[in-house]
Amino acid sequence: MTGDDPTSGDDPTSGDDPTSGETDADRPGVGRVYLVGSGPGDPDLLTVRARKLIDGADVVLHDTLPGPAILETIPEGRREDVGKRADGERTSQDDINRRLVELAEEGETVVRLKGGDPFVFGRGGEEAEHLAAHGIPFEYVPGVTSAIAAPGVAGIPVTHRDHASSVTFVTGHEEPAKGESTVDWSALAAAGGTIIVLMGVGTLPVYTGELLSAGMAPDTPVALVERATWPDQRAVVGTLETIVEIRDEVGIEPPAITVIGGVAATRTGVRAFLENEPRVGRGRVIEGR
């Protein structure tokens, strides 16, 4: 194993299996997998435990979502990119699951590093089930979810006593095998509150259209926050009726978070002061229409 011990001074592959009650002693030589959230991308927002585990892991499996500032802190020899490959193909989830088991069975200490939080649209639950089914000890390490952090660094709270007493997290990129969407946009339009859409840049015209058709007001504020906490962070604010045009005009690209609801408009009143904060001031916030 390279680097410092990522836990507390004890062997990180020792202890009880956190899933089935089976102990590591029952399977000598089996490593441990850590499902680690990296937060929105700023290394300063990694949890202390995440940093220790990354520094002490034998292998870190990752895609691009943790962001370059975090990935650059990991030696190339200990990194495996399981995101989009050079030929444009993506590593399948089945292949990632197999690789996690394979490395653990070789006795490696493995960090599966994910942007945001592993259990918020990060397929961490699927990986946890696969590891448990194969008797691999694992641990979930929470991260700061971009669903809350991205709006926040743009000056937008996801809840506000004057605007929203509830918040709903929705994926904008459902599993294609489903055939048709399982998101009830009509119900969301009727429920009110804040709607946070992750991975929804490309499908923005689809779900804004669904919300408009369901009766949501065209002047409902909408914000897009791109690459939150990264050096090139950008944010735009418009309305349900104008946000697609603004996205195209400005060129907003993934990764980005969509914020729908009255809270998106609160940015206006805090923006001047928020831009003076060192972390947020690195990016640009663009006025919408």
Describe what this molecule looks like in 3D:
With 289 residues, the protein is α/β, with parallel strands linked by helices. The chain has 2 domains: 24-144, Tetrapyrrole methylase, N-terminal domain (Cobalt-precorrin-4 Transmethylase, domain 1), CATH 3.40.1010.10; 147-286, Methyltransferase, Cobalt-precorrin-4 Transmethylase, Domain 2 (2-Layer Sandwich). It is built from 9 helices and 11 strands. The protein has helices at 48-56, 68-71, 93-105, 124-133, 146-153, 185-191, 204-213, 243-250, 267-274; strands at 32-37, 59-62, 79-81, 109-114, 138-141, 167-171, 194-198, 221-226, 234-239, 256-260, 284-286. The strands form 2 sheets. Strands 6-7-10-8-9-11 form a 6-stranded mixed sheet, with helices on both faces. A 5-stranded parallel sheet has the order 3-2-4-1-5, with helices on both faces. Helix 6 (185-191) packs across helix 7 (204-213).
